[in-house]
Amino acid sequence: MAVFVTTQVVLCDNTPMTSDKTQLGSWFNIHVRPLSQRKGSLDPALVTAEEGAKVVKVRKDGHGQFKTIIDALKSIPSGNTKRVILHIGPGNYNEKITVEKTKPFVTFYGTPGQMPKISYGGTAKQYGTVDSATLIVLSDYFVAANVMILNSAPRPDLNTVGGQAAALRISGDKATFYNVHLYGYQDTVCDDAHRHFFKDCYIQGTVDYIFGSGKSLYVNCELRTLGDAMDTYITAQARKNKQEDNGYSFVHCELTGTGTGAYLGRAWFSHSTVVFAYCNMGNIFNKVAWSNNNHKEYDK
Q1: Cα 146–chain centre separation
Q2: pLDDT over 90 for what percent of the chain?
Q3: Residues 135-151: tens digit of each pLDDT
Q4: Phi, psi (rounded to 5 degrees) for 38
Q5: 10 located within any domain
Q6: Residue 11 lies in a domain
Q7: Dihedral sign of CA atoms 78, 81, 82, 83 in order
Q8: Does residue 208 carry a catalytic annotation?
Q9: φ, ψ of residue 136 in degrees (nearest 5)
Q10: From the candidates 140, 187, 191, 208, which is the catalytic residue?
Q11: According to its UniProt record, which residues of this chain constitute the active site (predicted)?
């Protein structure tokens, strides 16, 4: 069981993250500890779930309990109270997947070096933007590690209607992503709602490719913007007023890509909140850096 990543991020105190990237490993080990050391400070339901963890093998070649991720998820009972680790073998899983709200404590785990690829070509024209995602997670305490998730729909242009195509929609609370690669163009990641932690991830896109109302921390991730003649935007955060408690923080991330006209973000709503700290920024950005999305009143 020790080889599977099931860790939930619960920081021990309010110590700020180190400004020294070489100390990130130490910071992580201090704040994210094994279950045996954290029982007294974790949600009782989470402690119960982790102590009774179960591994289910998914293999395309038939050498597991299930050949598809969807069938493995169907085997998890509604109202699940135990951690269920779907150990997903290598290969391309052409599936459109939803982890229902009634099935918390689910982990998608791939083997490093043999990362499974979950792909589907849903678009906003077919499903609506947020429901176009290849993987939709509605439940709490979700974990993904060493997995590739992509939306295979073609890159939209200015004349494309409904071409937005998400790879991931994360709507549940207390979700964590480790070494997850997310590929798409417009609206790659719908960081939809509640609290999420992304570490050592790769996220690729063009327009608003991290968007929504989540309250999320991205650490040591690569954000790759695919620029061209069109304006490109990394974020479109959706905070609507001062009372909402959400926003995105990117810390010690690498901002790479192509083109020269990228924006760090645009204000989807009046109080959109995004922070980039200690990040390395490539030579791909418009000097303005931020867009008010044609709403001058948002500048304040």
Answers
A1: 12
A2: 80
A3: 999 999 999 999 999 99
A4: -120, 5
A5: no
A6: no
A7: positive
A8: yes
A9: -115, 125
A10: 208
A11: 208
